[in-house]
Amino acid sequence: MVRETNRYFKFDWITIILFLLLVGFGWLNILSASHVGSDINYFDLSQPFGKQLAFIFLTLILIVLLLAIDAKFYERFSSLIYMVSMLSLVGLFLFGKNVNGATSWYAIGSFTLQPSEFAKTATALAVAKYISDLNTDIKNFKDQIRTFAIIIIPALLVLLQNDTGSTVVYAGFFFVLYREGLPKTYLTIGVLVILLSILALKFGALLTVTATTLVLVLLRFLSKKKLSILKSIFIIAISAALSFGVQFFYKSILKPHQQDRISLWLRLEKDPEKLEEMKRTFAYNLNESEKAISSGGLTGRGFLEGTRTTGKFVPEQHTDYIFSTVGEEWGFLGSALVVILFVLLLIRILHLAELQKSQFSRVYGYGVASIIFMHFLINIGMVMGLIPTIGIPLPMFSYGGSGLWAFTILLFIFIKLDSNRINEW
Amino acid sequence: MRQFLLFLLVILSGFTFIGRLFYLQIYKGGSNNLYEDNAIRKVWDYPKRGFVYDRNGQLLVGNQPSYDVMVIPREVGEFNVDEFCELLKISRETYDKKLDRARSYSPRLASPFVPQLSKEDYAVLQEKMRKFEGFYIQKRPLRKYETTIGANVLGDIGEVNNRDIQKDPYYQMGDLKGKQGIEASYEETLRGVKGIKFIQKDRFNRDIGPYKDGKFDTIPEQGKDITITIDANLQAYGELLMENKRGGVIAIEPSTGEILAMVAAPTYDPNILVGRDRSKNFTKLYNDSIAKPLFNRSLQGVYEPGSPFKLMNALIALQEDVITPDEKITCYAGYKYGNRFMKCHCYIGRRNDMTTGIQESCNAYFATVYRRILDKNGNASEGIDSWSQHAQSFGLGNFLNNDLYVGQKGRIPNRDYYKFIYPRTFYSTYTISNAIGQGEVATTPIQLANMAAAIANRGYFYTPHVIKNIEGETLPDNFTKPKYTTIEKQHFEPVIEGMHNVYKNGTAKWLQVKDIDICGKTGTVENFAIIDSVKTQLTDHSIFVAFAPKENPKIAIAVFVENGYWGSRFAGKVASLMIEKHIKGYITRKDMEEWLLKHSLEEEYAKPYSGEPFNINGKTQLQIVEDQEYYRLKQKLNKLNAARE
């Protein structure tokens, strides 16, 4: 193979090119979303697009560094990296700076750093390290609990800092564990819980329980494998508990703005006047972003030509809502291209992960894919109104140094690990 | 299997997103239309609407600015509605109702919310407008009439309706468009083309600056000024003479086809259709189904022409060579055909040639002539076709193809028309009433005036029209090229001689005007109305057709006065006075003028609606106007005379 003969070609250039394409296209859209007037100084460091350009240059240096470090380093020091990362999250409670209601930033002069972005990488390393340990068996309940703990600690810490978006991303580690042999029961239970929760919210607890009972009765007639009556009753009881639990959780524990987001998503509100009001108030962002995407049509309005982008109709458009700029200015063709680039990147990472000879590399690769996938799924889904609003950046695309560097580190550690797989035993 | 879960989810979410993008961008959205983009403020710039001058350069219609509050329902934001209502002086209910109406028209497009603000309201509102997101003020020119006459000529402008917008996408809700008269027929000339500025907004409804540095903006094109052929003085005089009467007066300059005056009575002051009371006043006019002030009787009134049509029959007979001007026909105080009899005013045994036939309006003479035309080749069907063609060459029985917004074809029957009524056999006697201008023939006043002009010109006419000049344009050929009738020139002289005799010693002997050789023809037409499903005869219509002077005619005129009884009683007087006014500029026959101002036909018009039996014609008494009314008319007359000097 070429990769064996030339040291520059041992890196997976397909992944690197996809990464660079996304970063470059992302910057063009940040420029569109944040520039004012027709005179543009690309290097204006007081503007988001200028800053992002600087971040990108620094990223290139970071990449060289990451690839220069010996691959063994990451595996060896993963526990330490995890600890430091957790400490940085805890430190936020003492020294954190509050931005938009989330205490997720360290402020050093005018420069801010968001440790939760890096914590995902650290967790991926830690999970990989733990699972790949010869003494660990993921089918073993005790080991399962320990693995969950590694994941839940950072998830809880960011949740306490009011960063719901990052918390949800940790759910993606399920895919990693499942790949490594987590029993199927978890998958079944997980899918059922999500399904029942949505049903209970949308149609009420009573209807959900009735539906569950009906399904069980049907199964009894149709399936050869008969469930015992006792088991059936147990399942119904669980579904009832879950349905009422979800309803209670929705009504009493969720904050009003979270309730509203879910209610809009599941179309729970029927009163057209209230819906109109929702569109003007908390769903304003979503409404404007959908309108901006719609107005792009097939080919879009063209780079720097979007009237809604120019008019700054979509708040946070250069960060979480960056995809709406793509929608307006590059149209269906451009937006679909971005979706395809992400899908290709994810498939490439998964493919490379499966090729790894070392379990650590494979698990870490799955971690990378899962984290990027969760961001991709939630961000684009939210901007297009398919998923309730959860603030989370689009990897490589959204404005922000911490985010860009965190994803660079996440991805390029894997590229480095991958490049080393022939040397491994 | 375990490897594929995330892989499948990645593929699945990719497809879902592309599907959603397709729905949002291709299926639902995709309009790159700046006009529908609510991030862009559209500021319309309405040009000056063209001015209208009369033939002597007197300004009749100008402009005044008007300010409308417009709304784009989709963009209505959160603000203090009560404050807004207070500024607009409307109630909260009205606000909701108006907003609903605008939304049901279109949530995306602008509709007028409160039209035509007063200047004070505008001044107050203008400063606070930015607070009321979704609303803006649109300035546009409104008409300002410099006169009180000619409502039926000038017409009016009004807000476009859905049909107008569908027909011509130039228009938007709230735009003003010519609805009647020259405003309608010269709409595109007068209105110009509105301009537009696109302005980039931000999400706080603030203007950021011109969109794309004004690349797509357009400059408004001013409307063109026009001069119309109407003589405002003559028009005003005609309208005055026709007060308290119903009917139409139309005067044409035979040498050009220019319409000098076009009176429809009753009429109204054009100023009442301007401003905030427009719709109230329009509804009032529209709902008056008895007097029908919006019905332009000089263009749309289809009447049997009566005796003036005898001129037509005389001309056709001469052209078809079925009679010579000198041949004398005996009248037996009527005309017997078969076992029926048509009465005539002549004494028994009077022998009329063409001149005296016209002078005395002898029914027997024209019945004979008409039958000879139809029976010329022994086939009445062929005869009526050639008769019909001759008459149609004078512009009768068809639209004149002129520049007036309304019109009627009238009716000149031919073979096909009668085939329906008499499918088997057809004799000339069946349609004998056509000989004296009754029966199946029907004309509008403008058609008769045009016929008079064609006679005055001895064989040709110009399509009557109301446009004299458009700023920077030449008139179409249709108005500047003569149209020839099928009657040769030499046949006109005996007929004109007869019309001259009508004034010299015929039915209009008492209507002579000193120093003007007028040629005319009276008409008295029976007419009927259905009252409680009974066909009831009403007092005859008074009709008069004339031109003057006999040589080098300057004016041809047709006058219809509904239920005015005989021709010279009302219509003849109006015609003579209009002719004198036009040719001399002043009136010597003050007696006739006085008579017309003093007499009203309102009681006559009230009869069919009274629910009681009533007398007609000879058994009626003429109504004299009350002193107050007489004084009002007299003052109007004085003003008119003062304006001339």
TrEMBL record, chain A:
GO terms for biological process: cell division; regulation of cell shape. Its main location: membrane. One of its GO terms (cellular component) is plasma membrane. The keyword Transmembrane helix applies. It is found in: Membrane. It comes from the Bacteria. GO terms for molecular function: lipid-linked peptidoglycan transporter activity. The chain crosses the membrane at residues 13-32, 53-71, 77-95, 148-177, 189-222, 229-250, 330-351, 363-390, 396-415. Keywords: Cell shape, Membrane, Transmembrane, Transmembrane helix. NCBIfam families: RodA_shape. This is rod shape-determining protein RodA. It comes from Jejuia pallidilutea.
TrEMBL record, chain B:
One of its GO terms (biological process) is proteolysis. Keywords: Carboxypeptidase, Cell inner membrane, Cell membrane, Cell shape, Cell wall biogenesis/degradation, Hydrolase, Membrane, Peptidoglycan synthesis, Protease, Transmembrane, Transmembrane helix. It is found in: Cell membrane; Membrane. Residues 46-207 form the Penicillin-binding protein dimerisation domain. GO terms for cellular component: plasma membrane. The keyword Hydrolase applies. GO terms for molecular function: penicillin binding; peptidoglycan L,D-transpeptidase activity; serine-type D-Ala-D-Ala carboxypeptidase activity. InterPro entries: Beta-lactam/transpept, Beta-lactam/transpept-like, PBP_dimer, PBP_dimer_sf, PCN-bd_Tpept, Penicillin-binding_protein_2. Pfam families: PBP_dimer (PF03717), Transpeptidase (PF00905). PANTHER family: PEPTIDOGLYCAN D,D-TRANSPEPTIDASE, PEPTIDOGLYCAN D,D-TRANSPEPTIDASE MRDA. This is Penicillin-binding protein 2. The lineage of its organism: Bacteria, Pseudomonadati, Bacteroidota, Flavobacteriia, Flavobacteriales.
